[in-house]
Records
---
Amino acid sequence: MSAFNAIGENVERDRNEYTPGLEPQPTWCPGCGDFGVLKALKGAAAELGLSPEEMLVVTGIGCSGKLNSYFDSYGFHTIHGRSLPIARAAKLANPGLTVVAAGGDGDGYGIGGNHFMHSARENHDMTYIVFNNEIFGLTKGQTSPTSPMGHKSKTQPHGSAKQPLRPLSMSLNAGASYVARTAAVNPNQAKDIIVEAIEHDGFSHIDFLTQCPTWNKDAKQYVPYIDINDSEDYDIDVSDRKSASDLMYETENALNEGTVLTGRYYHDEDRPSYQQEKQNIGEMPEEPLAERYFDEDYEWERSYDMFLDKHK
Ligand SMILES: Cc1ncc(C[n+]2csc(CCOP(=O)(O)OP(=O)(O)O)c2C)c(N)n1
Ligand code: SF4
Ligand SMILES: [Mg+2]
């Protein structure tokens, strides 16, 4: 694929460039939806012409958290629920980096829910992919925040008595400026959505339905799916919050009843990102923070000397 990279060169990139030479092959189970995310992310990076050095993939803990081991770029495998604060710090320190944060539904909607809500509210410029398999996969199938009511698992043997969390509605209401849902069974749509999300300046949230054939037999494969942007049965204006909100609510109900709706729901192209707001008020440089530690000859300066000078 051909595209212009960050320094304006026309480069040809192939999705296989993001396959690490040294890492082991993915250890995900056969048929796992996580393979679909990896494939879509590689396709999106190639289409955007991003070199591995221009990207950072930050992950949480879970089967989903292994994503950055299998994708060749800068990577940071953090702790459970904490991918977003690390991703935010990296983006603030190096505004030129393309930052993708990723993790599971337990990771992002459970233990990391607070970070999710506030990253959306603050509109941090990054793409957040949540692998939503509606259970805790790595720890062998416990009920997660998105497990449907009545879902039986080892932790809820008589069926979950809780209503599932509504990830799209939560994201929109918290303030995300791009919200979409896709599914591993729809790799072309998934790739296109990741391209759009990365190109978007602000917090883009993708709820990515990833089947777990090992522990979540109930969820099946998320097929057949309906693309709300292509279907004649749906008429959505993605720039209109009310329209997005209504269809998200319907989508979340439909999933619990077995109908899989996917697509782009909301895209606000006008709202400045947190990084832009900080730059506008002069609180954030446009160059990477690390470059401040170079002297005129482009040699590293000792950072504490600079801090001492600053406080004299
Ligand atoms: C603080 C903390 N609590 C609990 C765990 C155990 N743990 C590891 S992965 C996981 C759940 C993973 O589920 P999810 O985030 O949905 O990812 P999946 O494996 O389904 O991709 C849990 C509870 C942990 N590693 N750290
Ligand atoms: S346990 Fe489920 S989510 Fe984890 S690798 Fe296997 S199929 Fe995928
Ligand atoms: Mg999960």
---
Amino acid sequence: MNNFSYTKAYSVDEAVSLTNVNEDNKFIAGGTNIIDLMKYFVTEAETLIDINKIEGKRDIVGLDNGGILIGALMTNADTAYHPLIEEKYPLLSKAILAGASAQIRNMATNGGNLLQRTRCYYFYDIHTPCNKRTPGSGCSAIKGYNRIHAILGHSENCIAVFPSDMCVALAALAAIVHISGLDGDRTLAFSDFHRLPGDTPNIDNNLKKGEVITGIELPGNGFSKNYSYLKLRDRSSYAFALVSVATGLELEDGLIKEARIALGGVSHKPWRVQEAEEFLKGKKADAENFAAAADIILQGAAGFEHNGFKIKLAKKAIVRNCMMALDPSSQRPGAKPSL
Ligand SMILES: Cc1cc2nc3c(=O)[nH]c(=O)nc-3n(C[C@H](O)[C@H](O)[C@H](O)COP(=O)(O)OP(=O)(O)OC[C@H]3O[C@@H](n4cnc5c(N)ncnc54)[C@H](O)[C@@H]3O)c2cc1C
Ligand code: SF4
């Protein structure tokens, strides 16, 4: 790890001005990702600005529009176990608790979760070419061992996936990211927050240099009656998703009034296809219609030498998870869906 200075910011304004002093100043929140990246020499900082002392960003506030605003500095654990989240947004709670370990969730913050970097092995190995780490150096994964990599939205420059569980639920819930920077405050729809790799895989998201995430807004509809989060991985705990699915359904007289389906582990950003959700509107909530929606979601999917299996896995995971959403008791640990 390279030497760095450390300082604390006590307000959003102070954090923004401190990070803009030097191109290489960076924020630290829970530190569960940035410290690893610094230890592996993947990233470095002139000064780490600790934002944990900023007041008022560790709680949940109700909004006039019926939604809520979750503080960016609230931990993943406090968020998942907050009574309001458990009651109104259980999909988010489930997704968070599917990630990492209890110890990591106790440290990790919501803002940091959105900004965690890919788990591509080559990205972490500074002795291999990687366009995300060193633009223009090449992509070792395309012809390398690409079992965990993308099947959707990849480019010839990068096939990495975004590893978060929490963000898959946030995509399905149509969250809005609250941001502050030198130019003032702004919001970004969750679907516009993360980027596809294209020609600039080194840029993960549309946050501008020196901006701080202050909160995550959730609209009023938390799909709390019919929801499910399914995470498929090589180990049943403490492993990142090969494929994950977040589903929220609103049903009326046995028909689907509204559907939300987002995929994780398959692309550079949580993958949501509104055409599939439109297709489901007014249809019977059954395996056949969910399978047709899965085909729409996976349109254009293309695998590589070691990850082609993800296409079939994702389609089956979507159907299984949507069926589980019909029976929220299936969210009990170990419960199996009735297919
Ligand atoms: C062993 C291990 C297993 C894991 N498994 C999973 C898993 O299964 N699923 C999953 O989803 N995640 C997993 N994670 C990732 C974990 O969830 C993230 O590391 C964590 O959410 C990052 O939050 P943090 O507060 O620690 O971020 P930090 O490490 O402090 O920061 C991460 C980045 O965000 C920036 N940043 C932080 N907060 C803000 C803010 N408010 N505004 C602007 N910039 C900010 C920092 O500058 C840094 O660039 C795992 C991590 C580890 C170490
Ligand atoms: S997939 Fe992306 S992160 Fe992985 S080696 Fe290629 S460029 Fe780097």
---
Amino acid sequence: MLRRDALKLAAIAALATTYASAYDEKLIVNKKKMEIKDPANMTELELKHSPEIKVGAADAQGFSLVEVNIGQKGVIHPSVDNHWIYEIELLADGKKVADVSLEPTTSRGFLAARVNTKDVKILSAISRCNLHGEYSASIKL
Ligand SMILES: [Fe+2]
């Protein structure tokens, strides 16, 4: 291996270390898929964990700003040491188009992506809480 290649490898390893998740994986204690019991009368816990999906107007190329907040009707999920949304996925017609990994206390449940929604029928989002499991929501376009 050339010295230059070795230096590149060392730099990449240092970056990987710097950008690894800060949280302890052992804090994720619930990975169960949760179901909303009565969508017309969601509990506060269900509202707090359900993604709220908003879609902006499409630009000339067909890309819309899609924003996902975790928490519906203003019931926002917390982000504290031992309780936070650690991951959000955005799907267009069941196919993943964006995801985000989040850290306790420093980032809160939110994802934004520009998505070509021209031929998309359903946008879905999945939120993962370290304590309360996986919740999802969908909207029709
Ligand atoms: Fe939670």
